[in-house]
Amino acid sequence: MIRQAGPEDEAAIRNCADLAYARYVPLIGRKPAPMLADYAAQIAAGVVHLAEDAAGAFQGFIVFYPEDGAMLLENVAVLPKAAGQGVGRALMAFCEDCARQQGLPAIRLYTNAKMTENLSIYPRLGYVQTGRRQEDGFDRVFFEKPL
């Protein structure tokens, strides 16, 4: 089940981000942006959704919102113990459905260039690389998927 996050979910979301992104700290040389995000503010803004298993246990989360005529998928993270079970794909499909419901023509996202597995995963999901640039001190690769 995917539902909107509430303030009571912040600790689980922060923990998931820390667990999911910790392996990138040595590659990037510092914490990636999702480990530094203000999840309380994002939850309050209503832009965070989370996935739970059939028993209601937290599995992962996604952050997305409309920006510049498209849906910006800012972050998707899955607990390592839930990886490979389709949670990330379900969260991304949910984002795409929400974008369609809002009449938005595309999903945009970015990833760190050092997160090399993402550079092959996103094209398999229909995303096309649209650019690469330094932003906030990170080497980011940008993707877009038309809906």
3D structure, described in words:
With 147 residues, the chain is of the alpha+beta class. The protein is globular. The protein has a single domain (2-105), classed as Gcn5-related N-acetyltransferase (GNAT) (Aminopeptidase), CATH 3.40.630. The longest helix has 15 residues, at 87-101. The chain has helices at residues 10-21, 25-28, 39-44, 87-101, 116-124; strands at residues 2-4, 48-52, 58-67, 70-78, 106-112, 128-135, 138-146. A hairpin with a 2-residue loop joins strand 6 and strand 7. The protein starts with a strand and ends with a strand. The protein has a 7-stranded mixed beta sheet with strand order 1-2-3-4-5-7-6.
Overall outline: globular
How many H/I helices? 5
**Average predicted confidence as pLDDT:** 95
CATH topology: Aminopeptidase
